[in-house]
Amino acid sequence: MNVSKIIAGLMAVSAATTGWAVDKSLKGEVKLDGSSTVFPIAEAAAEEFQKEYPNVRVTVGLSGTGGGFKKFVAGEIDISNASRKIKDEESKKAEGNKVAFVELPLANDGISVVVNPQNKFVTSLTLEQLKAIWEPGSKVKTWKDVDPSWPADAIKLYGPGSDSGTFDFFTEHVMGTARLSRNDYNASEDDNVLVTGVSRDKSAMGYFGFAYFVENQKTLRAVPISHKGQPPVLPSVESIEKGTYSLARPLLLYVNLKSAQRPEVKAFVEFIVKNGAKLSKEVGYVPLKEAVYTETVKKFQGAVGSAKPSH
Fold first, then answer.
1. What is the tally of structural domains in the chain?
2. In a shared domain, residues 43 and 127
3. Are 13 and 77 part of one and the same domain?
4. Among residues 28, 82, 302, 306, which is most buried (max CB within 10 A)?
5. Residue 112: closest CA among 285, 288, 287
């Protein structure tokens, strides 16, 4: 993902428009990790934030949603970037480690199912067909196995690894149970690897976040998805915002409330949320309503205020 466009767009955002005075003396470190889907937003925000606060170091990891939560619930990072909600077992681990947190919405996304542009015969897919392709023990080896009218070319599958929130969301919504999937496919937590794989193989199919499709739509083709007899729908800003695209999902931040007592962490969270709409648009995701960002900042500030300061 090329974040230069996002950063350029944020250059126009001054301290006056963001609504707080910039304290150039602010020091410290902010650690984020998690979703590859949220990564482009987080990395762009980190780079621009460090221009405003040059003495604060912001690091953004790329471990996948599950990998980020593992570090987050152990108290190893300040913020977990997530493309799914935290699981009950993860929340219990956080509680056991005395990691109190707040969940903050950042944007909306739609998982894009893509094929190589040379593939002209797949004009749409149903969720049932996706299930047949991706389920454990799938007998689907060729495109002809999906539809008898399609060629008998072997399908080369690309998808996120098991630490990815995209993997969790896709399997839950397609298979009906999270984490159920065939394992004989090319897996990576780095969506750019998946993009490259599909773009170089005319028999390939893959899935990942909408922004990665938008960034690479010259070398990929998104497949319209239908469900329960409804007309096929392409992932788009409009279909994701309206919820008519069946693989739409939220993008989230989880903030350690102990970490948020530190002024550099608090300032960064306010920065990324207040710029959430602009960041989302620049990277190709679907922004929330401005009122939601305003309420999210209030929610965060209220959670920080009610949390016990660390001693």
1. 2
2. no
3. yes
4. 82
5. 285
DSSP string, 36-78: TTTHHHHHHHHHHHHHHSTTEEEEE--SHHHHHHHHHHTT--S
The answer to whether 65 and 34 are in contact (CB under 8 A) is yes
pTM for this predicted structure: 0.82
Q: pLDDT by residue (tens digit) across 233-268?
A: 999 999 999 989 999 999 999 999 999 999 999 999
Note whether 205 and 165 are same-domain residues.
Answer: yes
Q: What is the CATH number of the domain that holds 142?
A: 3.40.190.10
For 53, counting Cβ atoms within 10 Å of its Cβ (0-12 exposed, 13-18 middle, 19+ buried), the class is buried
Report CA-CA distances (Å) from 308 to 75, 99, 163, 292: 16, 12, 32, 26
Q: Rounded to an integer, what distance in angstroms lies between the CA atom of residue 3 and that of residue 9?
A: 10
* Residue at which a domain ends, from 191, 214, 242: 242
8-state DSSP, 249? E
Euclidean distance between CA atoms 243 and 142, whole angstroms: 31
Q: What are phi and psi of 150, to 5 degrees?
A: -90, 160
Q: What angle do CA 190, 181, 118 make, to 5 degrees?
A: 60
Is residue 311 assigned to a domain? no
Q: How far apart are CA 98 and CA 93, in angstroms?
A: 9
Across 144-165, b (16+ Cβ under 10 Å) vs e yields: ebbeeeeeeeebbbbbbbbbbb
Domain membership of residue 198 (yes or no) is: yes
